Amino acid sequence: MTVDRVAYKLLPPEVKKDIDIFADELIKNNTYLQAAIEQYVDSQINLKKLYNSLDDPDKLNEYRDKCEADAKKQISYKIVKSIKAIISKEYLPVMLRRQGQNNRRTYGNNGDSEAVS
User: What is the three-class DSSP state of 105?
Assistant: First the structure.
């Protein structure tokens, strides 16, 4: 048994909402994340200014909001990835051991059994 693909975009809407709330709480309570998001947003705006003109304050604020939403989405993706890793490390070895006990085959004529992995 393996852990199936777990991706944020494939999750049910109510689970996404819970993960987004958790991500918002992490950001609100972690000054490091707040600073990292601010640096990310500033770098994206500087890149946009370099290649396009962003003189209009409304467009600048709209792009800033888009970049902040993108950063929050990336944090949500990382949360899902971390949850998958925890599940894999905690439960997958147990499930594989159980599955291995059920997958015994007999080889040869003497009736000796070996586990097949």
Answer: strand
